[in-house]
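pls read this protein:
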Amino acid sequence: MSDYHKDFDGWIEKKKQTDAKTSRAPYFKERDIWWVSVGVNVGFEEDGKNGNFVRPVLVVKKFNQELFLGLPMSTKLKKNKYYLPVSMQGK
């Protein structure tokens, strides 16, 4: 059994704050990479990191101004035939 503790309560509070916001969604387009609050998930799904539960997400398909299909990415370099390194221009 792992000693790792998932902060489900912190994520619930962050969801409440996010839901209460009245600002419009930012402009985004396909192939953009955004830092997105993905939360804390059950099991082995990808969790967000830090107090905002964020991780980089690639916008694969934009459906409308507020909905897209995203692919969670990793901030860690991994050497494996299933991983493709991505770099940002100017970084």
In short: The chain is about 15% helix and 25% strand. The radius of gyration is 15 Å. The longest strand covers residues 54-64. The chain has a mean pLDDT of 78.
